[in-house]
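Researcher: Structure for this, please.
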Amino acid sequence: MPSYPYRTTREDLRVPLPDGTELYARLWRPVTEEPVPVVLEYSTGRLTDWTATDDARRHPWIAGHGHAAVRVDARGHGNSGGVASTDDSLAADGAEVVRWLAARPWCSGRVGLLGTGAAGDLALRLAALAPDAVHAAVVACPDGPHRLGGAVLAADGHTRATDRLADAARPPDPQYVGDAWRAMWLARLDALEPPLAGWLAAPAGPGPAATVPTLAVAGWSDPSAAAVLALAGSAAPPVRAVLGPWSHGLPDELLPEALRWYDHWLRDLDAGALDAPALRSWRTDHWCGDDPWPSPAVREVHYGLDGPLRTAGTASEDRWVHVRSPQHTGLNAGSYVPLGRPADQPPDQREEDGRSVCFDSRPLPEPLDLLGTPSLALHLRPEAAPAPVAAPVAALIAARLCAVAPDGTSTLLTRGVLAPASGATDATVLFAPTGATVPTGHRLRLAVSSSYWPWIWPGPEPSGFALDPSRSALTLPVRPPTPPAEDLTFRSPTLPLPPPLHLTEPLTARPERVTVHDIGRREWRTELSPAGDGTRTHPDGLVRAEETVTAYRVLAATPLSALARTDRTVRLERPAIGWDVTVRTRTELRCDPTHLLAHTQLRAEEAGNVVFTREWRHRIPRGGS
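Model: Predicted structure, token format:
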């Protein structure tokens, strides 16, 4: 193990909740007689297998620099007691964990929070419930809403729900809980409810605000970038945000920044944490800083759709441009949540541009630096549907901003979607935030479509819409060019080596992403598989095998043909004691003109024998509850 300022110890313990439930926890502590602050990572992950590798790298490093580091499995997950609860109950349990930790004799009474993804969102909520003990938070890629611009996400939501159900359905490990594992497992299974219907029925709204000093981190291509940018604009408490060229997660090179943040707020050390600008962002090939954020250096530049940006093919006597895209527009969108795999990033957008209405600029005479959230104001005329449909949503509006190179290559910069109110004549599409430089000689391209599958559920009719370019405009956040800031460079620390984990990959591994066009049926099918599928053998003898397949289908001219399905299988074995359990989950979503139709299945097996099976069917209004 590398040398750090403190030697460390590790122990497993149980944290009692007021109702008698005990949560399983792992604690790394610096060897010192003085009380130390605590950094808590609290999630629904399983600390003895799923997160064990990252935990073993990062938490000893945090402890070696003077903070106790604690990983706690939420109620009904991993080796914790109880049954899975709602998100609000998760946060309430977490607040009790914070208070218990702050009262330990080896704790100074100050607690910092750490969380990534769903755990990052949970950390922000938890901080608001325990303000006396929580003094700081570091969050990476906090989960966002399941609607985008009022439209329902087809990408990620049902897959994440399938994963969440499978995680909650896995049993405790007999090596850690003994013979009680089976009774705990059956109680868990009996109490489970799939989360998807609740997620989709919840009204869309902003994510949780920062209530304690917060360091927020994300990659530009992650859907959480908008939330991180919003946190950067927080007036109080202090917030520092970093948006970089990363996939989903907390990159190792940000750990020293996290340590500086904790040292400042938990140990009263002047580590320069507040010297950093409010926003540090990666700009194509260098870092730059903006303080304050929003930055007064960023100005809005408007591009009219009948002037600086122009489209071809519109008859001179018709001021309306008609947008009616095939239902498979969006197949080259890339992954909604990028995980660092080759197939995650969107490829050349020329195919997508061909399925959209495009407005192009002239070649740029000088580089154009973008930093912030573009928007598109449209004046609309909804197209007449072939038959009246009693639907709460009108046609979908999807907009992409691309940089077109002199050779024609079209590179996606950012995108946005909107499900306008039925009959609306004016609409504003907000794009995902972007930080990019468009080189000299490239053209800006605004591509507008009426479909974006499989990211977004299609509207009930393929009729599309018409827009008036003379009363529509694209607004871009333009920042003056800045030289590289060398002092903003991030470097990875020297972390401990993780415990050896043997991975056996499938002999016939599935492609990460494959698309099939059935010409005769006019059907498009896309199938995705995580690159991390396979069998893992842990140092303690646990064998964990996982397989996940997500599939999407749509007919080119029939929006109500859209279907999304995820199958997930998790098998856990301890060959030394003959323990062998398997959890199989499936979520399938279809749609009708007014609702999403969800069918969820769960099956649990012990030694190949089915011990539990259940199905759920939900009918979820497209417009929410």
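Researcher: Any notable elements?
Model: The longest helix spans residues 87-102. The first strand starts at residue 8 and ends at 16.
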